[in-house]
Amino acid sequence: MHAFTVIFLLALALTTGVQLWLAWRQVRHVASHRAVVPSAFADRITPESHRRAADYTVAKTRLGMAETLFGVLVLLLWTLGGGLSLLDSAWHSLALGPVATGVGFLLSLFLIGSLVDLPFSLVHTFGIEQRFGFNRTSAGLYFSDLIKGALLGALIGTPMAALVLWLMDHAGALWWLYAWLVWIGFTLLMLWAYPTFIAPLFNQFSPLDNPSLVARIEALLRRCGFEAEGVFVMDGSRRSAHGNAYFTGLGRHKRIVFFDTLLNTLNEQEMEAVLAHELGHYRRKHVRQRLITVSLFSFTGLALLGWLSGEPWFYSALGVEQASAHTALALFLLVSPVFTLFTQPLLARTLRRHEFEADDFAAEQTQARDLIQALVKLYRDNASTLTPDPLYSAFHDSHPPAPVRVAHLERNATAS
């Protein structure tokens, strides 16, 4: 057995063991705190809502554990089980040429992966989400979204894959640098195109029709120096009872979007506070920082792939018989998560710091207590657990735990 095969199997076992252990901790911790609402929320969250959130969290985490184990099996079948080699041989038999073969191989790999993951998605949507009263999508709408997503992915992914594969075969040793520049350009293009061209394929967006709230939002935007294409309401209730708000886009094409479910939950002051939090990400340059972080990670990853793709052992140690640009890319995408689990706490910590900074900004521009009240309503209505396991949260949560976040805002409210 090749040394890298052993390393891969050991890393896979470690990663899987840690993921399952963290999930087990989460289930045990949330279940053990199910009966009692944390004292900071005792007058805001009912025991019934708290128990519902605990049960919802436990159900999702247990499904995630099953998905993790199944994912390990699928990964082993693709790699050491010879699945990639079998798929590669099937495409080579068509004699389409290296780029067309590579694009077909990658698209079929992603399609098969989506079909393999489909049962878990169905259980999540029509099982867990349905049982806890969140799912509002029909089977027809679900599969319509699935088909549109697949077609859109193929439409966008085909030229990108073709260009990257061509660079890998024709651009020399520094192909990965050119591919990185292409990726950066593509990312910026998608940020610009998403709100105007992509999101409307799945949801309807209408201008916010509440003059009082619009006036309040426009005053906030002027105070923050934020220019947007408009404030829109998205028909999120067609698919889910969960509520959210976000802004998206680049330059003058930025849009502020509220889920319609959010408008039914929060009052105007709370809506303004939630928006101020989202604007805080913009004013504190979090979007730019995250783009830089993603760029650095992709730069490092592509540089590593540039080296690995030229090493015969990279293919043979992972069960691939014939080295090629597309099998190198597929192997790297499949295997790299096995070695990156322990970067998650660092990234999650940065994202949680961003949330604190955005909360601080919101407290400066609006009333901290309005944001607290909005968050409590969102925790309640989205069935977000108030008692996550600290270690699980450190790996997985991009937002601070509810008690920590609310306590931080309470200090802001007291200081103001």
Structural notes for this entry:
- This protein has 416 residues and is mainly alpha-helical.
- The chain contains 16 helices and 4 strands.
- Strands 1-2-4-3 form a 4-stranded mixed β-sheet.
- A hairpin with a 6-residue loop joins strand 3 and strand 4.
- Helix 4 packs antiparallel against helix 5, helix 9 crosses helix 13 and helix 9 crosses helix 14.
- The chain is globular, with a radius of gyration of 23 Å.
- The N and C termini lie far apart (65 Å).
- The mean pLDDT is 92.
In spatial order, strands of the major sheet run 1-2-4-3
Helix content: over 70%
Assign an overall shape: globular
End-to-end Cα distance, whole Å, is 65 Å
Given helix and strand content, the structural type is mainly alpha
**Low-pLDDT segments, ≥5 res:** none
> How many β-strands, per DSSP?
4
Query: Order of SSEs, N→C?
Result: HHHHHHEHEEEHHHHHHHHH
| Tally of DSSP helical segments | 16
Rg from alpha-carbon coordinates: 23 Å
**Major sheet, described briefly?**
4 strands, mixed
| Overall mean pLDDT | 92
Oligomer: single chain
In what range is the share of β-strand residues?
A: under 5%
